[in-house]
What does this fold into?
Amino acid sequence: MSNAATTQTLTDDMIHELREEAGAAGDDALGHICDVALGGGDSAETARWQCAAAITSARAMGDDTPMVQVVA
It folds into this structure.
């Protein structure tokens, strides 16, 4: 049995969904990170990694979701 996490590539749709959830939760900072990730430019790659980490962390908190690491 392997302990390696399954990985999933981050998509723009996932970032849009994260942006909506952040807005609903009043998390303006995460919403801004999502906007930067979707906007391209010099900071987009770092922002995409931050979005991937946020999604991975949120999924890890769900007891019914198998561990899937999201990567940018």
Notes: The beta strands are 6-9, 68-71. The CA atoms of residues 40 and 52 lie 15 Å apart.
